Amino acid sequence: MSKPAIRVEQLKKEFRVTKPREGLRGAVIDLFNRREQSVVAVHDIDLLIPQGEICGYIGENGAGKSTTIKMLCGILVPTSGTIEVNGYVPFKDREKFVQEIGVVFGQRSQLWWDLGVIESFRLLRKVYRVGENDFQKRLNELVDRLALGDLLNRPVRKLSLGQRMRCELAASLLHQPKILFLDEPTIGLDILVKSSIRSFLMEMNREHGTTIMLTTHDLQDIEALCSRVVMLDEGKIIYDGSLDQLKEQFGGGRSVQVQFEHNTLVENVFESTSGLSATWSKPEAQLDDGKTLRVTLDDVNVPISEILERVVKLAGIRDIAILEPNTEDIVREIYRKGV
Predict the structure, then answer these.
(1) Domains and CATH numbers, the chain
(2) Residue ranges in the chain modelled with pLDDT below 50
(3) pTM reported for the whole predicted model
(4) Which helix (H) or strand (E) is 146 found in, with range?
(5) DSSP-assigned letters across all residues of 317-331
(6) Considering only CA atoms, which of 87, 111, 107, 109 is closest in space to residue 99?
């Protein structure tokens, strides 16, 4: 059995921060005697990510996502716990470790602002000690996949955000890392650029077996790319599983929207489906439309056909629509209510 790409046990990161006193007198006292307090950003988390997996790491601002990524990349040293990434302890084996990871921080650049893109790539080749032949082969592949041909000789400062992010991705993959860390890689990008980046990442994962750990606020990235979701809240993991399981566990059941030929009372259809774990309601956008009702099925064993068979006797059905649980709404509701 191959080693996992990432193994984390009881990982904790605690920061010491200044706690200012109130008022002018407090400010003067702080000049000579600062008060400090401990803030725990990551609370004793355990995480095991197999090689070749695309894992979404999500949470609200301040949940501890970026702190975790920085520890996994060796930028931060954990307060306690153990980390192993591709067989290395990131903050101890830094020189060897960085040869096998790629990192893209959406709001920070690894490219040189005033140099042409190709010059930045060549400098990174030396940093990562990639042979010229391997570099050229990899560069040609990335230029072709990310459509960078017209950008190579432009200064980085003259690139649009979408163009720069494509170049950032290429820069992070020039040395063909086994693990790719992406922190908000599509932030601020338009829908076409996001789509092309998602397609590219899927190809890299499929063809090269690249393990990808993705943090993002754009849940469409998660739905398009990730086979697994880890949800963080106040530094603690509150969910770890597949996206389908997340929808099944927190999605509130399957829903079907039914449009009848004539106005129909909720009470009548509810009575006709009693005993089937079916909850009827009016869609919010159509509260004045008595023809359209929504039914939520809490029991996965109840066939939709049985529901429709019972209500069709009340009034003819003009149209039906099966409603998939919305991931963004589910996640928002989890954070609002807590798990």
Answers:
(1) 6-241 (3.40.50.300), 252-337 (3.30.70)
(2) 286-287
(3) 0.75
(4) helix 132-146
(5) EEEEEEEPPPHHHHH
(6) 87
